[in-house]
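User: Okay, second chain of the day. Same drill as before: sequence in, structure tokens out.
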Amino acid sequence: MKKAKLILVAILPAMLAFGPARKQTFVSQDINNFWDAYDKIVTTKDSTRQHELIRELYISKGTHGLKSLMNVRNYSAREFIDAINKYPKFWKSLRTQTLSVHNLYPEVESDIQKLKTIYPGLKPATIYFSVGAFRTNGTISGDAVLIGSELALADSTIVTEELPQWMQSYFKEFRPRNNLALLCTHEYIHTQQKPLVQNLLSRCLYEGVAEFISCKATGKRSNTPGVQFGKANKEKVVNKFVDDLFLISNDYNWLWGENRNELKVRDLGYFIGYEICERYYNLSKDKSKAIRELIELDYSDEKEVERIVDATKLLPESLKVLYERYEKQRPTVTAIQPFKNGDKQVKPGLCQITLTFSEAMDTNFRGFDYGPLGDNHIYKFVRLIGWSDDKRTLTYEVELQPNKRFQFLVTNNFRNAKGIRLKPYLVDFETGN
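Assistant: Same drill. Structure tokens below.
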């Protein structure tokens, strides 16, 4: 008996430290609130009253999940009302699917437990089911997984004929309700990751980590068409990705948007990230360590990102070589008129400044900023005169005070016709009496 007590005393602290088995927390009250509001909204044509009802019965009663979803996706009451009024057949067909979401909880919870098995450090997150206005099927805010039920809970019975073509394609290609558990696992991983850095490679890695590891944990195949297309057309996709790698303006050709380049398939960035993660995992002797490294990757650590990407040899050359090649392609400022950069006796008063670039520029983009000395050393802008016919010079008028040092930065928001960004150029000069 004493021996049994000693064993119990030894085990108890370990149990307390590890904690009891935790059930996954789901919150779906927003769905019920939405349909309560919907039933009253469709009985009136008074738009003012409709807006009052959506605010009173849905938004103001919203859970933390709905409030976070509206904040993250910048939803407004007007968008909810517009969606309700424009797609009556869609909403009527969706109702049963959303109100039965609890039937899907066991599969979601099972997949989250599988994720915890391969990543024991998994921190708990609450999964919220709300109704949005068609801007996300799933996203996160802190330790909350936010599911847009109007997209994520639809099945093949949903009437889509009223919807825009891209939405119809989404429901057909992604089969969202069938893949809800995989989506929740993907978003759950995002709650564990460090903040991403705003460049194309980091964004693709961020999504690729969540997609690959959710599939690895659950044993399910990715339902993102871009992943299957990428694997079937690897060389073509990778070469196009290298072309776009440093062109920030092309992100929506790869993630979270409609791809408008010649490949046409959306979300190919998921494939790039997925393929890097899969290769890195397969090359690693310690699989658990590889999972941990991918989930806990610090995207601000450029050397670590470079190490992981280069190790996979997915890209034709190292990131360093690719970046050096890109740098050589960047346009530059070659001259400034009517004075030279660094002059110390520039005439004060009204002055027309002309910047000359090394090649023709995209006239839709330009950008200026303060120099290191700050906003006390910037000129007063008077008017934009415009671009030359060959798009290589830009002229504008400023007012310069006497006996003052001026600085301004010609930023990389300027870009050439291919979208390659300008090498930033600091202009620094002084006026005389």
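The chain is about 45% helix and 15% strand.

User: Thanks, on to the next one.
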